[in-house]
Amino acid sequence: MINSLYALILAGGSGERFWPLSRRSKPKQLLRFVSDKTLLEDTIDRLDGLVPKEHILILTNVDQEAAVRELLADFPEENIVAEPAKRDTAAAIALAAGWVAKRDHQATMLVLPADHTIKDRMAFQETLQTAVRAAEETGAMVTIGVKPTWACPGFGYIEQGVAVSLKGAGAKNPLFRVVRFREKPNAELADSFVRDGNFRWNAGMFVWPVSTVLSEFNRHAPELANFISQLRAPNNWDATLRDRFQNLPRISFDYAIMEKADRVLMVEASFDWDDVGGWRSLAAYLEKDEKSNAANGDVTTLNASNNIVFNAGSSKIALLGVHNLIIVQTADALLVCHRHDAENIKNLVGKLPPELQ
Length: 357
Fold this sequence. Notes:
357 residues; alpha/beta; Spore Coat Polysaccharide Biosynthesis Protein SpsA, Chain A; five-stranded mixed barrel; five-stranded mixed beta sheet; globular
């Protein structure tokens, strides 16, 4: 156990991509669809033996706070914090940096999304240990890059530079300087990234000394740095969170800090990784029949192929003469859409009655 290591788990989200199974109050990380645990529980479990529970901050939002607290009933109550307003990842990480710095200014800090699927815990921890070692030895901000398996236009990319060596032996993962971060590309550009071989998927995982991230906030985002200072003041946490957070700039951490920081390194992940971004991605975890119909249970089909079916309701589902559809049934809603329209589900949700969103 590394006692000077803290972790932020980002557990917000809008619950749109997996509608109708997910809702605003129950987004992807609170669902059980790839194992018997939620994605949030799996994320916490992966840190076992690396970060003590009392050093883990779960950051959620007011819509999901009750569900997170109910799910994590045995978790330190004060380690679950709800953002009072949606302000993107720069404000979220500033809040967490203040939380950690208030406890240990010399700590090293991890930032992890709550909604990714990773099966190889040992390789995951080895990758993080290399990142922690790199951050502590160099004082740099470190990100985790995943070697692309296909030219996905839905992910951000990291362009890697020269290799970096650490002192001594034992680093099991390749380490590189970061040339630049690239936003989600179009399909043609994503294909060129993969063919180039010098790009990695940006997994949204970071490691840094707290002193380094505080310095970067001071240099590049003074309004957020001032917010952190107020959070750290004695007896000022609750009031600052309540009164200041909602007025912070709505900006991503990549854009506010990472793209401007001078010292950024990337550790290449040795673990399996999937962000399970929508129903099409989930199909890989479901049973398939001889016609490539993927389902979480028994479905009767005739002349039907390449469909994705998730039945969380009690009714029987049967498919006749349909192809390339997504069918999701819950107790109060039914989704039927073409596979190629899956990215537009989030636009559909806004048209629904509030009680179904």
